[in-house]
Amino acid sequence: MRHDEPTWNPQADRTPASGESDRASGESDRPDGSDAPEQPRELRRILRLFRPYRARLAVVGLLVCAASLVSVATPFLLKEILDTAIPEGRTGLLSLLALGMILSAVVTSVFGVLQTLISTTVGQQVMHDLRTAVYGRLQRMSLAFFTRTRTGEVQSRIANDIGGMQATVTSTATSLVSNLTSVIATVVAMLALDWRLTAVSLLLLPVFAWISRRVGRERKKIATERQKQMAAMAATVTESLSVSGILLGRTMGRADSLTRSFEEESRQLVDLEVRSNMAGRWRMAVITIVMAAMPAVIYWSAGLAFRMGGPTVSIGTLVAFVSLQQGLFRPTVSLLSTGVQIQTSLALFQRIFEYLDLPIDITERRDPVRLETVKGEVRFENVSFRYDEQGAPVLDGIDLTVPAGGSLAVVGPTGSGKSTLSYLVPRLYDVTGGRVTLDGVDVRDLDFDTLARGVGVVSQETYLFHASVAENLRFAKPDATDEELHAAARAAQIHDHIASLPDGYDTVVGERGHRFSGGEKQRLAIARTILRDPPVLILDEATSALDTRTEHAVQQAIDALSANRTTLTIAHRLSTVRDADQIVVLDSGRAAERGTHAELLDRGGRYAALVRRDARLEPVT
User: Fold this and answer.
1) Which of 205, 308, 316, 318 would bridge with 79, disulfide CB 3.0–4.6 Å?
2) How does it sit in the membrane (predicted)?
3) Single pTM value for the model
């Protein structure tokens, strides 16, 4: 198996790996439950998301610094008003200082609007990059990943987890820079006014920082549990409220049970949301109370110093200092809250990074082979396959050749590996031994475009989008004309039915095509494949779920589709494969018999037994 393992880059998702995975674990191995060694690496990885937008972020930084410096000037203007302009009756100076305070507010507001616009745009672009990266990564995962992952879980990662990071990505970085700049500028200004009062004001800040860090860790753990619960609930909704889920629930009388199950999951989410919002709330409230009480402490300290004959502070200086202190209060509390929010968001980033770090086992070579024309010869050379290293082999030692334009039918009992064998040709899975070739080239060496053009699949599980008939058909060939659509539908024996519908080819097929019967959906799928015109055709039990009359109509469409193509048919009903050039009987992953229909009947082996069984099960018409 080939592994050209890429790591993710927001701008180039094909960058090869150079070392260890950046997988972020949601669990901590430290005795105290912290994950301090992981956090710097995670933060560096988060910062890399913003790297393509450095220039715009630099502008935001300049605007933030300018706004902070302008806002700090206001208390000094106030000090001059109280200590000089008013006592000395200097009206001109008073007007100038008052105008300066107004202009300071205007400039600060304008800078704030501009920085919000730029930072929000950057943040939304980063979220777009994340969503696109996760979706692109999942599109490149093998079929095995989706067989073991609930659809709702995948949807929750893209919608809930990335959506939950919106506030952090769009505003936290700007808030962090803005508040940090404000705190530094304010502390410097306070020191310039009076270092003794500044020391009193900052005495408890280290304690506050420690408390906020503890609260952040607590909320991060709860956030991880909450997102898992949201994913579980999303999976339940996706499965039970689909058309198939509703049909199953109603016909099995389980609607009330499903409602109770959803109610319980929702109740658990309510508990986690409450815990998340209340975690550390009392401790943060204490910080808020203490900081709000600091002006009173400053006034008390200044009054006590004056009473005891210490150094006096002018009224202007005292008012300006308290104004600065109040200005320090907001960004400091915001900084502490931002620290908590960042730690909480790390849980969401971890879940996204887990998907971005998923190993991709179906990859395209750096220098893939591209076939301009696919003739259609398919070979299986000593092919073996297993789903995991410790599992039993699903296929073992398969050697088969299907010449271009020829037909091969694969039959056998359930679980013999028939579908798995067919999925190796379009690389829905990769072999674990041997090789599969198309026109003599290992399919693992071909570029994905050649495989997509060269191999078409029609399976028993027909998937139609909730869109019009024309849009479903054009999924195979976006630039197809109406005439091409009609020709493909005629070949698939479905044109007359479509034309009889009120909206014709503009008819919406409904969720998963439930407005059409099973046979009609199969013929639509065949028409879609005819439109793509692949030289190699995989038919995976395409008629096994249909009644005899519908099967006959669909089989006519399949015959039209199979003409002059290399055809690999996975068959449940043996009546559909009697004319195949070669028939192979699989048993426990090995080719037990092979030959034509007549040859295998003459041998009287497994195939003959399957034919006799099929004849007994065939309904009388």
Assistant:
1) 316
2) Multi-pass membrane protein
3) 0.63
Phi-psi group of 240: left, alpha or beta (phi > 0 → left; psi -120 to 50 → alpha; rest → beta): alpha
436 bridge partner residues: 380
How far is 184 from 69, CA to CA, in rounded Å? 10
Degrees, nearest 5: CA angle 45-10-229? 65
Give the whole-angstrom CA distance, residue 280 versus residue 348. 19
* CA separation for the pair 230, 266 (Å, rounded): 9
Contact call for residues 407 and 576 (beta carbons, < 8 A): no
- The token pair at 208 is 């506050």
Backbone angles phi, psi at 410, to 5 degrees: -115, 120
Collapsing DSSP to helix, strand or coil, 397 comes out as strand
pLDDT of residue 343: 67
**Residue 160 vs residues 220, 353, 599: alpha-carbon distances, Å:** 16, 14, 59
Contacts of 529 (CB under 8 A, 6+ apart): 456, 457, 458, 476, 537, 561
Model confidence pLDDT, tens digit, residues 508-540: 887 666 678 777 888 888 888 888 888 998 888
Report long-range pairs for 10-13 (Cβ below 8 Å, ≥24 apart). Answer: 10/48, 10/49, 10/51, 10/52, 10/126, 10/129, 10/130, 10/133, 11/52, 11/129, 13/133, 13/136, 13/137
Instruction: Provide the 8-state DSSP code for 448.
Output: H
In order, the DSSP letters of 335-368 are: HHHHHHHHHHHHHHHHHHHHHHT---SS---SS-
Task: State the pairing for strand pair 455-459/536-540.
Answer: parallel
437 — phi, psi (to 5°)? -120, 150
Q: Which residues of the chain have pLDDT under 50?
A: 1-37, 620-621
Q: Which pLDDT score, from 0 to 100, does residue 15 have? A: 33
Beta strands 455-459 and 441-442, pairing class: unpaired
What are the backbone dihedrals phi and psi of residue 537, each rounded to the nearest 5 degrees, phi first?
A: -125, 130
Backbone angles phi, psi at 380, to 5 degrees: -115, 115
Measured CA to CA in angstroms, residue 293 lies from 180, 187, 195, 297, 329 at distances of 22, 18, 19, 7, 10
The DSSP secondary-structure symbol of 383 reads E
288 CB neighbour count, 10 Å cutoff: 14
Contact 565, 377 (CB under 8 A): no
What is the Cα–Cα distance from 484 to 477, expressed in whole angstroms? 10
- What lies within 8 Å, CB to CB, of 146 at 6+ separation is 154
Q: Is 563 exposed, middle or buried (0-12, 13-18, 19+ CB in 10 A)?
A: exposed
Reported as type and span, the H/E element at residue 155 is helix 151-156
